[in-house]
Amino acid sequence: MPIDFAGAAVGAAFGELFSLVNHLVKTVAAFRGQLKKIQTTLGNIEPIIKDIDKFNNLLDRSPEELAPIKVLLEEGQGLVNKCLKIHKLNLCTKYTHSRKLTAFNAALQFQLYIPLLNARDAKELLISVLSNGGALQSGLEAFGNLAVPAAPDFIVGLEVEASLRQLQEQLLEKGASVIIVTAPGGCGKTTLLKKLCHEAAIEGKFKDKIMFVPVSKKPNLTDIVQKMYQHNGFKVPEIKSEEFAVHCMKQLLNKVGQDPVLLVLDDVWKESESIIDKFICDGIKDYKIVVTSRYEFPHFRPAYHLNPLTHDEAVELFRICVTVDDRSMGAPDAKLLNQIVEHCKRLPLVIKVVAKSLRGKDYAFWKKKLHELSEGHSLLDLDIEILDCLRKSLDDLDGDPSIKERFMDLGSFPEDCRIPATALIDMWVELYKLDFDGVQATPDLHELEYRNLADLVFPRRDSRDDDESYRSHYVMQHDLLRELAIKECNRGEVEKRERLILDLMGNNFPNWWREQKQQPLRARLVSISTDGNFSTPWPNLELPAAEALVLNFQANMQTKTYALPEFIAKSHKLKALIVTNYSFFPAELGNFHVIGSNLRRIRLERIAVPFLSMGNLRLHSLKKISFFMCDISEASMSNGAKISDAMPNLVELDIDYCNDLVTLPDDICEIKPLRKFSITNCHNLSALPEQIGQSASLEVIRLNSCTNLLRLPDSIRSLQNLRFLDISDCLNLRALPDQIGQIVNLERIHMRGCLRLSGLPASIVKLRNLRKVVCEEDKVAMWRPLKDTLNCLEITLFEEEANLDWLND
């Protein structure tokens, strides 16, 4: 059956050839053996072309790079057509044509499969969509992929297993339905659904039509619909109203609804019941919606009530969580353990947090914990009681106040979002006067995870094999723990709080702010979140002590703009500014002039801000600036403003997933203190500044996944302080600079995925300090002869996941 490739010429040629071969296999007996082999080869190639078409739709591009393949396909069509004209008794011609068909099949395998595989991988890198929500939403999982998060290794509880079976049976039935899974917070509803969606039977039925949508307290229907388009491989529409979002969503579901569809709406609040109705779409024969919520929605049935663990199950989970390296760490007598478990209300989240707080502690500490848990329980509100129980587990952090501080800082980011680890590190470096690179901050990330106060997620396959920069890591936190962090932050009078965390709905400012009667605030960390209905000019806010400001917003659907608040200009101690747009498309950022000269770190996500426009600013204290998924295209500056004048003391430049970036201003190379230069996943970057060799302080250059980069400037040989060079997945890079051997202090090179790189320059033998090279197996042969000369060289093999087994048939 011909397949649709968005009108691409190569797709049409492939479809015609495949259709012809399928027909002739049934009707032309004389060449049936050769035609069956061609049919098998085309069948194996078909899913690769489907992937390319899916990615092209997503990127709104046509596969022009595959034009040469079209010629081969058209030649094949003529060759296959000729089978109809050769009589079966014409043995000589039949023999000759059989040989031609065999040769064509080999050409398909090696001239078609490999280029298509490379093209697909390049586009997959572009889209960043990891197969499990990892780095492709690579990086994009973090910002929009609806793939099901990883399931836990184990789940304790017969109740959970029974619920899994019941839900699975319901989902495997034909027909459309809405299923509610309800339980108090911390009972494991989301964990249950992750496990369910990874069950073989469910994956087998719904395949890639499973969408896992975190809804949370302030659902953004427009953003959800746009992510649904992205997840299903369609061009993402611009949506300017909620009504149009519903229309687009219905269109999408009708397109993909020929196959079974499963939509999980996770953590729907009582106030958001209407959003469930919007996702109901009549006419789709096998469409399941599963809703998790702390609330039961009586209008929808069936409803599954997930109960707390039994006492024995709770004890089992507690023992697992309090155990390290298969050894029970100071486990007390059974009576004391049972009492603590009962005070945890047999809720998995509470059990995990409390158990991990007791790891390695002695008997007296366990007794103290039981006493704390026994005090002050309220039976009126289970959520309040759970939070109270969790709060008491934080008392153990009083001996380690830095961890408690870091835990409360997590409340600065929206509910159910992936918090970039680098954003936290940037914030902590300035708030707590840590080292510039954040090495002192990274143990705190792991300590939070160890105590089950947050989850550290690293979606990319190669995340561990980096330079400890945590650039691909994210932190996630259960919404109950976030509530707890915010409650801890909100203790005491507003004017005296160390942290000010504000979550604004529309234009509803707190009375104390709007009335302009507040005293100057003492908060050192300020976080303000706004939704898509925010439009009011900012009231004044006096923040004389603020050192870190986090602005989270959803761009207005009509204007796609956001203005920095004027009060930033008067916040003279402000050192770190983190601005994140949680809408699907970048938003224009106004009022840039309010940024003060004392800022040391700026991080912008999904912001449209021409990089060169910053030449007019005076950011003389700025040490690090990060752009993530921003539009930063160069705008000509008539007044000759230079980036090097605007930020002369910049130490680190980080540009990631900025696809409109083609070149960089040359004067970046005039910034003398620049030590780290990271331009990654910028697929239209074609060249680096030729003068990069002037950046004598550079120690790290990351260029991974700049798929259109053709060469490195020869001047790179002058970088005597360079220690780490990452050119991984630079698919079109053909050679290293001839004089790369002059970079005498280079210690590591990462070059996995450099498909066109076929050799090494002779000067490579001069890299006496080279300690590690990361590459694929086919590149190891280039490096192995150097091990005799470079005695300390370690070659680390990066395994390619592509499967070529079918070529052996």
From TrEMBL:
Residues 1-150 form the RPW8 domain. Belongs to the disease resistance NB-LRR family. Transmembrane segments: none annotated. It comes from the Eukaryota. Keywords: Plant defense, Repeat. It comes from Rhodamnia argentea. Pfam families: NB-ARC, RPW8. SUPFAM superfamilies: P-loop containing nucleoside triphosphate hydrolases (SSF52540), RNI-like (SSF52047). This is Probable disease resistance protein At5g66900. InterPro entries: Apaf_helical, LRR_dom_sf, NB-ARC, P-loop_NTPase, Powdery_mildew-R_dom, WH-like_DNA-bd_sf.
